[in-house]
Design brief:
single chain, mainly alpha, two-stranded antiparallel sheet, 40 helices
């Protein structure tokens, strides 16, 4: 039956029931019918009445005059409960037993498995235990003792009959403690299954229940970490309490578990609270190596838990393709245990008794703990805790001189810069300050390529990978972030790697990938789980993605979404101010946008964020100030940003500033053309979100500004098929090439002096890059073609243009050289 037919049928039954109850079908009733039919083809009443007109009739008779839909639905449910209870009272024992076991199993259990537990029992036609209302009534009819006995018997029978541990664990979830060793395995398997399905509350309840069973120290710590991971997504405050429990109660031999808990304290972004907790943990960390136990020193021990990277030596990765950042290829991030699962709200209330004997070795803890070798000794643990402390302090905006926790900062005389975690913090500090790109990259690679067995917290690895993004070493950054996302997939701790990778996609023009990662980020760590001081960063990434893809309606919804109190206190607020300013400028609210950009700049400078590759607020403000006729202010802003960009040395940051400066001068056509080509090369043949927004602004001025037109023509020539936004006018110069071809038909290149319009699209892309000084090997890598193909395209371009070298090529493509602007 089609949806309209079902709607009409249900509405007819409703009218009949109303008429049988002596109620007329008045205007009020017709309005209810219309609202129900519009909201659901089943007309809402079908679910509550289970399609039974008799239930509907009885419900109508129970209601007063003119009932609303909620009242009618509630009455239908009450009628059905009464009818199910009446049936239960008349059932014989075997049928009632069948119904109770099936209700206890719940929906989703395959029939073949359920039949193994109810073998020999007669079914109960007319009552479906998969119906939540029927199951609720069946189980509510039993007292607590009966339900506990049934659950215990069913769980034992399921284990004895060899049913999957996931099903056995679900049956054990509502039972008391004191089971044999197989129960812990089943509970952990059920928790991992619920976690993989992102049923966070169910997973957390199962992990909490598992902690009530006898469990060894190592398995207990791993289970607590898994519990905290899923609590991040459904009960963030409880997650923080769980991680603090691990940090404070783990034995001296469990350094890796303490580092993992400390690492996870930074996930939600409550950096000030995390900083205080990390300071206490640092001072309580053991100063001498703990005695090694047989289990800890076992060379066959399991890998570390999710979010803790251990390096097994350098491996190969794609060679970075930046002009200024050179160095060895990076090693892939360590693949540690994956965290995939749901969460609960409650943490453990007591330490369960320890298991001994045969039971002690059978439990399979969620992510297993790493062995504690010499590389994880007290010095390494204290170094990791200190790195996390300073990472939290920097993110919270706490000036070093105001901290009184006596935790040595990376780079102090009291610290060892051979420590890879400290290198990660130094890398991020260098990156935000924008002082030395090569030194920042060396620090980042040292953090991501530690010695074998050395633990580097995931938060530090993310900071190092973000540093590589700012150095425009995109290949290595992508490689590292991919590994971190995989290592933490399915848990709240995946939030920071996903956010960092979404930022990378925005910088490299992979807007669909950015949208996917932002969606996954919200799934694993919903907005309500983020701390108020960090939530603005998530909103800023969303706004930039929506701005770059031109989705203005959804953009407005994100702009209007409320933010919790306290959002303005962290550095993330500067990121949101920047994104909001761009959105307001796109809507023509120039004064508001300029104010936001200047406030963004004040906050960045106060926090030491001086790198324009991070937030190019000055050049954005300069373009808006120029539009308001304030050229002196625009010139000062652009000069400052250009100096900062050149001091940092990333080619893309310099080219973006140059492009924005050229757009402020109508006659700077060559400058705009070259800036666009340089940007396209720096971004590896794609347009970043920032570039797309700048080109869109140029498109709005192309009728009055030759420089804007030149930028758009250059983007159209080289950017087709590489993420070029048609909204910004990037359709390419095909008409010009056709007219040039017609005009020069039958003439040789030498006679025509061949212009760029005579070149094919592929030849023009190669020629543009060659004219800007890129060697053939680099051009081949950017365009993903062979070096021989590059040489062939260049030879054909020289022949068509009637030239013989790259200097002439530059003159032909760019026109008169030596064009300068007083702005920068």
């Amino acid at each position: 039956m089609t949806a309209p037919a079902r709607t009409a049928s249900t509405a007819t039954r409703w009218r009949s029931a109303l008429a049988a109850a002596g109620r007329g079908v008045d205007a009020h009733t017709e309005a209810l019918l219309a609202a129900a039919a519009a909201g659901d083809p089943a007309v809402l009443m079908a679910a509550a009445a289970a399609g039974d007109p008799a239930v509907l009739l009885a419900a109508v008779r129970r209601c007063g005059p003119h009932p609303d839909l909620d009242t009618l639905n509630a009455a239908c449910r009450e009628v059905r409960r009464d009818r199910v209870a009446e049936r239960l009272a008349d059932l014989p024992g075997p049928q009632l037993r069948w119904l109770r076991v099936r209700a206890l199993l719940g929906p989703g259990v395959p029939e073949r498995l359920a039949a193994r537990l109810t073998h020999g029992l007669p079914g109960c036609p007319g009552l479906d235990p998969a119906d939540p209302l029927v199951a609720e009534v069946v189980l509510a009819a039993m007292d607590g003792t009966e339900r506990a006995a049934l659950r215990r018997h069913t769980a034992e029978a399921a284990h004895d009959k060899g049913l999957p541990p996931v099903l056995v664990g679900r049956l054990l979830s509502a039972t008391g403690p004191g089971w044999p060793g197989w129960a812990l395995d089943a509970l952990l398997a059920a928790a991992a299954s619920a976690r993989a399905e992102r049923r966070w509350e169910a997973a957390a309840a199962l992990y909490s229940r598992a902690l009530c069973e006898p469990i060894g120290d190592e398995a207990r710590l791993a289970t607590l970490l898994a519990l905290g991971d899923v609590q991040l997504s459904c009960a963030p405050e409880a997650a923080d309490r769980t991680f603090r429990t691990v940090l404070r109660t783990a034995p001296d031999s469990a350094a890796a578990a303490r580092i993992a808990a400390a690492d996870r304290l930074l996930v939600r972004g409550d950096d000030e609270a995390a900083r205080r907790e990390l300071a206490a943990a640092y001072h309580h960390a053991p100063a001498t190596p703990p005695p090694q136990t047989g289990t800890a020193a076992d060379p066959t021990a399991a890998p570390p838990p999710p979010g803790i990277g251990t390096a097994a030596g350098p491996a190969t990765a794609p060679q970075p393709r930046t002009g200024s950042a050179t160095g060895p290829a990076a090693a892939p991030p360590s693949r540690t245990g994956t965290a995939a699962g749901p969460a609960t709200t409650a943490g453990p209330t007591a330490t369960p008794p320890q298991r001994t004997g045969a039971d002690a070795g059978t439990a399979t803890a969620p992510p297993p703990q790493p062995r504690t070798g010499t590389a994880e000794g007290p010095a390494a643990e204290r170094a990791a805790l200190a790195a996390l402390y300073w990472l939290a302090a920097d993110r919270a905006g706490t000036p070093p001189e105001l901290t009184c926790d006596r935790v040595p900062a990376p780079g102090d005389a009291t610290t060892d810069l051979a420590d890879p975690a400290g290198h990660g913090v130094m890398a991020w500090r260098e990156a935000v300050a924008g002082e030395d790109l090569d030194r920042a990259r060396r620090h980042a690679l040292a953090a991501l390529d530690p010695a074998a067995g050395v633990v580097v917290p995931a938060a530090v690895q993310v900071a190092a990978a973000r540093t590589l993004t700012l150095t425009e070493d995109f290949a290595t950054a992508e490689h590292r972030l991919n590994g971190l996302v995989e290592a933490t997939r399915g848990a709240g701790s995946a939030a920071w790697p996903l956010a960092a990778r979404a930022e990378l996609w925005l910088r490299t023009g992979r807007l669909d990938d950015a949208e996917r990662d932002l969606h996954d980020l919200r799934q694993c760590l919903p907005e309500q789980s983020w701390h108020a001081g960090t939530l603005p960063r998530l909103r800023a990434l969303q706004l930039m993605q929506l701005l770059a893809t031109g989705r203005r309606r959804k953009l407005r919804a994100v702009l209007d979404a409320p933010l919790p109190p306290g959002c303005e206190r962290g550095i993330a607020w500067a990121q949101l101010l920047y994104a909001r300013a761009l959105a307001e400028a796109a809507d023509g609210q120039v004064d508001a946008a300029v104010g936001m950009l200047h406030e963004c700049g004040r906050r960045c400078l106060a926090a030491g964020y001086r790198n324009p590759a991070l937030l190019p607020w000055r050049s954005q403000a300069a373009m808006l100030e120029h539009g308001r006729g304030r050229d002196a202010e625009a010139a000062a802003l652009l000069r400052a940003e250009r100096l900062a960009a050149e001091r940092w040395g990333a080619a893309g940051a310099v080219a973006l500033t140059e492009l924005r400066a050229s757009l402020l001068h109508a006659d700077a056509t060559t400058r705009a053309d070259r800036a666009v080509v340089a940007l396209w090369a720096a971004m590896r043949g794609s347009w970043s979100a920032e570039t797309l927004l700048t080109l869109e602004r140029a498109a709005a001025r192309r009728r009055s500004s030759p420089a804007a037109g030149a930028a758009l023509r250059a983007a159209g020539r080289i950017g087709t098929g590489n993420g070029w936004s048609v909204r910004a006018g990037g359709k390419g110069p095909a008409p010009a090439r056709k007219s040039a071809a017609r005009h020069d038909a039958g003439r040789s290149p030498a006679e025509t002096g061949g212009g760029p319009g005579t070149l094919s699209a592929a030849q023009l892309r190669v020629a543009e890059l060659a004219a800007n000084g890129l060697p053939n090997a680099a051009i081949a890598e950017i365009l993903d073609i062979t070096k021989r193909t590059v040489e062939l395209h260049l030879s054909n371009a020289y022949r068509r243009l009637g030239i013989t070298n790259r200097a002439q090529l530059f003159d032909v493509l760019s026109g008169a050289a030596g064009e300068h602007s007083p702005v920068c």
